[in-house]
Amino acid sequence: MLATRERSKKRGPYIRGLACMKFVSRAARTLLKVNQPETSTYRSMRLGDANISAKAIVSQKELIQTQHFNFHTQAPLANLILSSTSSLATAIMSTVIVFGPTGHVGSHAALSAHHFGAAKVILAMRDPSKPIPGLTSTEESSRSFQRVKADLSDPASLTSAVSSTGATRAFLYHNQASTDHMRSALEALKAGGITFVTFLSTGGILPGTDLSSLDPKENLIYWLHAQVELNIISIFGKENYVSVRPAFFATNSFLWKAMIPTGKVKVFAPDMKVDWIAPSDIGRVSASILVNGPKEGYKEAVWLVGPQKVSLAEGVRKIVKAATGKEAEIEEVEGEEQLEIYTRVGVPRPVAAHLVESFGKLRALQADGGDWLPSGEEFDAQVRNVEVYTGRKAQTLEEWIEEHKGEFAA
Questions:
Q1: What angle do CA 199, 205, 210 make, to 5 degrees?
Q2: Model's pTM, two decimal places?
């Protein structure tokens, strides 16, 4: 549940010109690494590695509609914006903390946060010595990254990590080891100074769902995530969190990693269609929200899906072909055999049993003409959310496979 990084093209008008920004103090320039000479004019305002669009930092309608801001000739206006717009202050000064930065999603959230305007990115890790995918030592030392030891199962470590680094915004995932639906962890984060949370949840919690109405007997995974969200709301308030709700991760295909090189793959519910969203897209969307909050019109949740509905069998065939050059042989498996496949890759047996049951229900739903994924305009809107938040289109399954085919080699 992982993508080349490139600078995203902002959709709104750019703030142009960094010339004569006398309202930015020397200390702020140092913090933001704004080192350009004052006599030059720049195509966009750069805050470290970020291009901040006018729409992202100005809430007043008349200012949003302005084509461009020229800080060389409109310094008084710039002063007004800086002093009166809290979202700009957030974009310029925010220190964010990312939990799970070695994971498929967390690594991309961490690496993208600077791009979206974070002044500093704290990498919260149980083992700070572990490598972070995509982050070289040179890049880590040349940009504002800081590693800190922290464990979501150890509240004291969370308060310490946050208070010692000055982080105010946190990216979190569901900690399966928690015995209180992460309540003590959330309270510790708030005590340390966190004021806003971006939470990696599940697309199984559909739009309009009353979180308190979910039944663990119906779907345990949805219910577990909902309990954490309810705790976030209780501790931070609805206005101070956003839940990112993706559907089927392309990296779920690593379940068959050992079988892919042989070309013979055992698949449960091979005819079930899923969306194969790239975790890199999830991470970048999460980073955008972590730094700048939700877009206008969005509230406490953003749903994400990949751009195609492709059956598990067809997805596996594409992976096998790209990774080995072979034509895949798909064998359908059921029950106990599928449980063994899950447990072999480290999934606890009770969770594995629940996954098998849930996939069986979803498969039956599609067979009866229904779908657990959205359809029509709702599906298209959830695909577009990737571009809305990152400036780039959602990655297709084929693009994801091309990037990761080497990881399936024998």
A1: 100
A2: 0.78
CA distance 340 to 346: 10
Q: For 133-256, where are the E strands, in sequence order?
A: 145-149, 169-173, 196-200, 241-246
Q: Are 161 and 144 in contact (CB under 8 A)?
A: no
- Give dist(CA 37, CA 213) in Å, integer: 58
d(CA 98, CA 106): 7
How far the first Cα of the chain sits from its last, in Å, is 21
Reported as a single tens digit per residue, the pLDDT across 243-275 is: 999 999 999 999 999 999 999 999 999 999 999
- At residue 261's C-alpha, the angle toward residues 256 and 262, to 5°, is 95
Structural Rg of the chain based on CA atoms: 22
Residues of the chain with CATH 3.40.50.720: 94-252+276-308+376-383
3-class secondary structure, 199: strand
Which pLDDT belongs to residue 93?
60
- DSSP assignment of 237-301, as one string? -GGGEEEEEE--BGGGGGGGTTTGGGTEEEESSTT-EE--B-HHHHHHHHHHHHHH-PPTT--SE
CA-to-CA distance for 14 and 16, rounded, in angstroms?
6
Q: Is the distance from CB of 274 to CB of 389 less than 8 angstroms?
A: no
* Residue 184 structure tokens: 């003590």
Helix (H) or strand (E) run with residue 121 in it: strand 120-125
| Residue 410: pLDDT band with limits 50, 70, 90 | low
Q: What is the largest CA-CA distance in the chain?
A: 71
pLDDT > 60? residue 46: no
**At which residue do the structure tokens 């890199």 appear?**
280
Distance in angstroms (rounded) separating the CA atoms of residues 275 and 204: 13
- In the chain, the amino acid numbered 266 is K
Whose tokens are 């600078």? That residue is: 7
Please give, one letter per residue, the 3-state secondary structure of 131-162: CCCCCCHHHHHHCCEEEEECCCCCHHHHHHHH
> How high does pLDDT run on average in the chain?
81
> Is the C-alpha dihedral spanning 348, 353, 355, 356 positive or negative?
positive
Average pLDDT of the segment spanning 140-151: 92
Fold of 94-252+276-308+376-383: Rossmann fold (3.40.50)
